[in-house]
Amino acid sequence: MSDALERGREAFRDRRWSDAYEAFTDADAGTTLGAEDLYDLAVSAHLTGHDARSAEILPRAHHAFLDRDEVSRAARCAFSLGMDLMNRGEVAQAGGWFARAQRVLGDRDCVEQGYLLVPVALGSLFGGEPEPALETFAKASAIADRYDEPDLNALIRLGSGSALLALGKTHEGIALLDEAMVAVTAGEVSPIISGIVYCAVIEDCIDIFDFHRAQEWTAALTRWCDSQQGLVPFRGQCLVHRSEIMRLRGEWPAALDEADRARERLSHPPNPAIGAAHYQLAEIHRLRGDFAKAEESYRNASSSGRTPQPGMAQLRLAQGQVDVAAAAIRREMDEAPEQLARSKLLPAYVEIMLEAKDAAAARAAADELAVISKGFDAPLLHAMADTANGAVLLVEGDARAALTALRAAASAWQRLEAPYEAARVRVFIGLACSALNDADTADMELDAAREAFEQLGATPAVAGLDALRAKPEATPGGLTAREVEVLRLVAAGKSNKAIAAELVLSEKTVARHISNIFTKLSLSSRAAATAYAYEHGLV
């Protein structure tokens, strides 16, 4: 036995993956490795990020086991290669290797038959048929239990959990995903299967807006990974999700690096998920004020098959192109009938509609988001709904109700450790306090928001807040800009219904504005309000 081969085996046992890969590679150059050593070389290559090398070695291991008539182990090699190819988006090749594994196994009674049910179940799941997927996973589970196979059980819990989520059974699905991740972090599952489980669990958590759980599992798995030398467990889409979590937590430089790593990995070979990497890059550039880079990345996302919305519309809003932003987000909403897809658009839709002076559309969207959030035990979704509701209530002139919703949103964003979103809410809170004539609290909230934006490097947010606080002239009597608009129309003799139609508001909102005007100006009639408007040059 060569010294390099012995070093490779020892390093593999100790989970020193870089050392194992280098030593096995040296040994492979000097002699013909046996089937077990070839398989361990392929595993080491995969775990250290040498995916192409792993894909070259696994077929050799497969044939080496066939030469020894070890059919089950040959099938396991084919399954491993198929899963790797499937996760990289090379579905046709993956299907070929799964078919090869099934052919060599025939009707043998072995645990590998359970493994080969996994891609069948995944095909049903990805094809929009979660119930048949659950049935197939149940068949695989019976085999896994009979052979006491931890890796297969982890894949089954993962797939079954995802299928339950697709059926709307959130609590049952999450319980299975958590169980799969416990097996991973306890070291009961092999490293490659661990990477598959981790990536899929994080994706499922983000899809149902459970960022807190995604953050928790990311931290746990990172600690597990750090204990193994040279381990590179995060692949493409996983890096995109890690970037998304980092962005939410305000770790923008790290999020940018992670998204760029994802873009690079997903480029060779080209993977459909690369559009998501470009989109994450665009989002971070937009928040930091690098608008040219943001636009380039949004366009790259679009050319890769990922819609650039709602980010592109938010970019146009930040550039002052309100009409363009409104047209884009309206069109995107029209094409998103599914509830979760709409929930990812609604916060931006509310923001843009408010800027477009379409308070009625903003109110409808905020109400829809509130209804969706009630169907999910997802703190992030609740925070989004409270933020949207508070912002709309503020424009509708109900500052007290707005403050209640915004305080709830602020607490939620703080618990989620989302500093940018928390700072945005503090801006709204400051405006609500100002509308209630609490100038001291308003100033403190706005100062705190500005400091948070500066620390994050959120240049557009800082500029927007400075412009907001530097209004050249105060409105008479402490009226808001919207209240001045309503007062002018009252002075023009228009009814509540006519005012509502002109300003695209509900009659209830118009009535609230008029009540606020009367209170602030100590008036008791529309005639008195008309006289006030003429006396102060508002008409």
Report what the structure shows.
This protein is mainly α and 539 residues long. The chain has three domains: 3-235, Tetratricopeptide repeat domain (Serine Threonine Protein Phosphatase 5, Tetratricopeptide repeat); 377-470, Serine Threonine Protein Phosphatase 5, Tetratricopeptide repeat, CATH 1.25.40.10; 478-535, Winged helix-like DNA-binding domain superfamily/Winged helix DNA-binding domain (Arc Repressor Mutant, subunit A), CATH 1.10.10.10. It has helices spanning 3-13, 17-30, 35-47, 51-67, 71-87, 91-105, 111-126, 130-147, 150-166, 170-185, 191-207, 211-226, 236-248, 252-267, 274-288, 291-303, 311-318, 322-334, 339-343, 346-355, 359-374, 379-395, 399-415, 419-435, 439-456, 459-469, 481-491, 496-503, 507-521, 526-535. Helix 1 (3-13) crosses helix 3, helix 20 packs antiparallel against helix 21 and helix 28 (496-503) crosses helix 29.
